[in-house]
Write a structure and sequence with these properties.
hydrolase; Carbon-nitrogen hydrolase family protein
Length: 285
């Protein structure tokens, strides 16, 4: 009933090859491995670092080029998950399907399986500047340590989708994020706290830090990793199990005791999941 989770405050900077990206990713995985991590989270859009690799004209690439890296991205993280014996939520990567671009979270199992969750709610920038399409479904994922879901950044700002994840059995939500200023960061962070209280779950979240000066809409990043819990007696008073230093290049590590969730759902100071008024509003289960 316990899992050890880590989250990467991924430092974005310009690179010249995929090998540089791979080396940086491996560095974070090896660091997490030294702490015997079982689940490792990377941020949303961290693979946009690949767009800083100059094209034949020496210019940075556009978002439409990012799916071209998908086979190499999949091979890299399959290998890292297998070698580290770790579940890796490799942030999000932009994939192309039927002519549309999707911002897609990827879960790499140690045994080689790969599961995906498309971002369901798309921000105006993603729609108007990057022509992203919306995902249409929610899946939860069974692991040998518990049931998890992946909801990306803006998704966490919609209570209904997190209710659905909990109703499907998720005890831990992994929330990769990418925000360019304090306003966006705090929107996501405050909503993460609210969702832990409403659903009596853990949320592991992180964001990008650093800058990609040549990549449009990735020049500014404001990020901090955190492991968040419900606000009740078995947990820290502020609901913060662990958090990083804002905008630093680092990882955080924390142990998540899932039995405590069952404890507070049954006899906590408040029992928000059990006390839902499903006679008045939707029962997502």
């Amino acid at each position: 009933m316990k899992m050890r989770a880590a989250a990467v405050q991924y430092h974005l900077h310009s690179i010249s090859s995929f090998d540089e990206f791979a080396a940086q990713a491996e560095h974070y995985v090896k660091t997490a491995q030294e702490f015997e991590t079982e689940f490792l989270l990377f941020p949303e859009f961290f693979t946009t670092q690949l767009l800083s690799i100059p094209d034949e004209q020496g210019k940075a690439q556009g978002i439409e080029s990012l799916p071209d890296y998908t086979p190499a991205y999949l091979d890299l993280f399959r290998d890292l998950a297998a070698r580290s014996d770790m579940h890796i939520i490799a942030g999000t990567h932009v994939v192309r399907r039927e002519g549309k671009l999707y911002n897609t979270a990827h879960l790499f199992y140690p045994d080689g399986r790969v599961e995906t969750q498309e971002k369901i709610h798309i921000t105006p920038t993603e729609v108007h500047e990057w022509n992203m399409a919306k995902g249409d479904g929610l899946t939860v994922f069974e692991t040998d340590k518990g049931t998890i879901a992946m909801l990306t950044c803006y998704d966490i700002e919609f209570p209904e989708i997190v209710r659905m994840a909990r109703a499907k059995g998720a005890d831990v939500i992994f929330c990769p994020s990418c925000t360019d200023d304090r306003h966006g960061f705090h929107r996501v962070r405050y909503c993460c706290h609210a969702r832990t209280i409403e659903n009596q779950i853990y949320i592991v979240t992180t964001g990008t830090v650093g800058s990609l000066p040549t990549v449009d809409f990735m020049r500014g990043n404001f990020g901090q990793a955190a492991v968040l819990s419900p606000n009740d007696v078995p947990f820290p008073p502020k609901g913060i199990v662990a958090e990083g230093e804002i905008n630093d290049d680092m990882i955080i590590v924390a142990d998540l005791d899932l039995s405590l969730l069952e404890q507070v759902r049954e006899k906590g100071s408040v029992t928000t999941w059990r006390d839902r008024r499903t006679d008045l509003y939707t029962d997502w289960s």
